[in-house]
Fold:
Amino acid sequence: MKGKRILRIFTDAAMFALFLLLMEQHLLPEALQVWLGVSLFVLVLAHNALNYRWYAVLARGRYNALRAVRTADAFSYRGSNAAESGEAVDEWLSELGYMN
Structure:
């Protein structure tokens, strides 16, 4: 496998593992949960950077119903993920004293 593909697989696997850990928030100390949330945010940014071509081909081709639903689903997931990660970053910055 090429290096970039291995990095993509590792990034996706790490995101999955962190997502599962963060789902069990009642089992984790709050500080650890914040750090894991920030780590997930960084991994999401890396994932999007590694898969930038997906955004480039969105305008190509025809959109049938299935493609439209899959694209809408992908964007809704990205939006909800960004909102959750943004909350984690806000919490992290608050703990560090950067936000009131």
